Amino acid sequence: MSTTYNQNTTIEPPKIEYCLYARKSSESDERQAMSIDSQIDEMLTLAKRDNLKIREIKKESHSAKMSGSRPIFTQLLQELRQKKFNGILTWAPDRLSRNAGDLGSVVDLMDQGKLVKIQTYSQSFSNSPNEKFLLMILCSQAKLENDNKGVNVQRGLRTKCAMGWRPSIAPLGYLNKPGDGHKDELITIDPERASFVTQMYQRVANQGHSGRALKNWLDRIGFITRNGNQIPLSKVYSTLKNPFYYGEFEFPVGSGTWYQGKHTPLVTKELFDKAQVMLKTVPKSYKNKLFPFKSIFKCGGCGGGVTAEEKFRKLKHGGHTKHIYYHCGRSVNYECDEPYITEGDLVKQLIANIDKIKFNHAGVTRKIQEDIDRYHRLKTQVLHQEFIDGHLAEFNRVPQTSADKNEMTKNYLLHILQVGTAEERQEALSFIKTKFILTDKTIKIEK
């Protein structure tokens, strides 16, 4: 059986319904690109001229560097698969793709016949080998431009770092200035705010202020950032932990690559390190730690009570050191600027004043009295043996009369201050009548 064909039969091209897609990125490499509204206006004019049917307009502000990162474009591809429309109208090929992944999705839809035509302002692309190849070349060229720009930008940033200039927005207390970095300073001191940053470090390092105390102080004096806002608490802490202020910076952050900056430091390295020690937070397990000397001290600045806290400092080769600091509790005056004193310095000054301390013998508990007696018996035995062995030229037994109770108590307290635990110190300090005032890291007897 033979088959006959009508030679007058013609195959009509598929009717194309377009989605107008406009995109613009806010990134620096697209600052010269047409705005979204301008793209839409131009393509609507083209559609009217060529009698193109536009079924929908989609627009988004998003970079096309990364595949699958544009929600509107992803929706466009999905609707093409669903045959909602079969053509794309856009300003230029690079509006659709600047990466291999999205380009592959577009070409795959053309291969499947679901995307019949891509119409740009100056050319069109259909499902033919030559036109698809040209589309791929143009989109790949856009990707190449992006990649080259990225390489050049990174090279420029590294060069800027090597020159000593941090390539980003200047932190609080500094200002960015235009220039080439050779003759011109690219980062200069902010005359309105730099001194306050320095004071922040001084208040933490020398007076033990917390981040919240600093924020309250800055809010009270009317300090504002370059944006005209009050400084948030998180910004206070990030400022206090930024090595840029003593002259060094890491770029990129977290890379481990450090540079010596050419900008003028606002603090010394010593002041910065001291502030870091004071900023160390106390682990939860230490929040109920016993600090025995709080009970016998008052703040000389405001008359309020004295409190204490532990600070931990990491050692260069592992581990950490622990320091206990006593300071004003700021219950009377939140802005009290009495500086911190270490427990070690406190103990040394108490020992130096041991002869001035008065005791409440009536308040000595039976346990403490037993400890005092036990300590002196042991001390007497040791000294007596030293005398017998010829290591002491003279030995007098410690008298056990009531007149010497004060001396015995003082010797016991001296021993506990030097080697006692926190619990033993608290018990020993409980029978002290003398009260002390803490002023400028110096203890004075309250009159």
Largest sheet: 5 strands, mixed
Order of helix and strand elements from N to C terminus? EHEHEHHEEHEEHHHEEHEEEEHHHHEE
- The helix tally amounts to 13
Number of domains: 3
Spatial strand order of the main sheet: 2-1-3-4-5
Q: Name the beta content range.
A: 5-15%
Proportion of residues in helical segments: 25-40%
Distance between the termini: 130 Å
Strand segment tally: 15
Oligomer: single chain
Mean pLDDT: 81
Rounded to the nearest angstrom, the radius of gyration is 39 Å
The shape is elongated
Produce the secondary structure layout:
Layout: E1 17-23, H1 36-50, E2 53-60, H2 71-81, E3 87-89, H3 93-96, H4 100-111, E4 117-119, E5 124-126, H5 129-162, E6 174-176, E7 187-189, H6 194-207, H7 211-220, H8 233-240, E8 248-250, E9 258-260, H9 269-279, E10 297-299, E11 306-314, E12 320-328, E13 341-342, H10 343-352, H11 366-388, H12 405-419, H13 422-429, E14 436-439, E15 442-445
Parallel strand pairs: 1-2, 1-3, 3-4, 10-14
Antiparallel strand pairs: 4-5, 6-7, 8-9, 11-12, 12-13, 14-15
Helix pairs in contact: 4-5, 6-9, 11-12, 12-13
Structure description:
The protein starts with 16 loop residues before the first strand and ends with a strand. It has helices at 36-50, 71-81, 93-96, 100-111, 129-162, 194-207, 211-220, 233-240, 269-279, 343-352, 366-388, 405-419, 422-429; strands spanning 17-23, 53-60, 87-89, 117-119, 124-126, 174-176, 187-189, 248-250, 258-260, 297-299, 306-314, 320-328, 341-342, 436-439, 442-445. Residues 282-286 and 382-399 have low confidence and may be disordered. It has 13 helices and 15 strands. A five-stranded mixed β-sheet has the order 2-1-3-4-5, with helices on both faces. The chain has three domains: 17-147, Resolvase, N-terminal catalytic domain (Rossmann fold, 3-Layer(aba) Sandwich), CATH 3.40.50; 174-276, Putative Large Serine Recombinase, Chain B, Domain 2 (Hect, E3 ligase catalytic domain fold); 306-445, no CATH class. It has 447 residues and is an alpha/beta fold. It is elongated.
